[in-house]
């Protein structure tokens, strides 16, 4: 993805690139919520944001910073990575002289990106970030991430199947934007077919 196609302004692009390096510094290792996840969410955000007419500067910054506190949550240092990530993002952006109102818009998107808790997204940019984060949990990449998480936490195949049925297959109906709903349909179909086949094989069907 060529960033110039989405953010033509050189100064804004420089800020986005600087923020990318800042965000990357929080991730010491890969995993289900490593920096590769951040990059995929970033790409999805720009695609959806362009289609939906969002503020791509706010959206790009929020996407890059949305999971910076996830390693802190995983280590037990903070309880909610979305709230802590918003705090860090707000501090980082204002320290560089970024307008407070726009820094707050980035922070709100980060605070609201978790579909399972937190405030309801009020802005288009917050809704798109939430959509992109959910989209990365379904489809082929979503299947891979479920089993990566299961390996990290010692979860069985049967427990993974339950996670698909109780959470992952519900995500299609939680999208806010029309663009995300369209993207979710194909990813959902793939996931649904995989889950059906997995259940058949677990139950001993040949």
Structure, explained:
By secondary structure, the protein is mostly helical. It has two domains: 1-118, Hypothetical protein af1432, CATH 1.10.3210.10; 137-206, Methane Monooxygenase Hydroxylase, Chain G, domain 1. Helix content is 67%, strand content 0%. It has helices at residues 10-24, 35-52, 56-65, 70-74, 81-95, 100-111, 124-135, 139-153, 157-166, 178-202. Helix 2 crosses helix 7 (124-135). The radius of gyration is 17 Å and the shape is globular.
Largest sheet: none
Assembly type of the shown chains? single chain
Elements, N to C (H/E):
HHHHHHHHHH
Number of domains as seen in the coordinates? 2
Task: Write the CATH architecture name of the largest domain.
Answer: Orthogonal Bundle
Question: What is the assigned CATH homologous superfamily of the largest domain?
Answer: Hypothetical protein af1432
Shape: globular
Topology:
Elements: H1 10-24, H2 35-52, H3 56-65, H4 70-74, H5 81-95, H6 100-111, H7 124-135, H8 139-153, H9 157-166, H10 178-202
Notable features of this structure?
single chain, 206 residues, mainly alpha, Hypothetical protein af1432, 2 domains
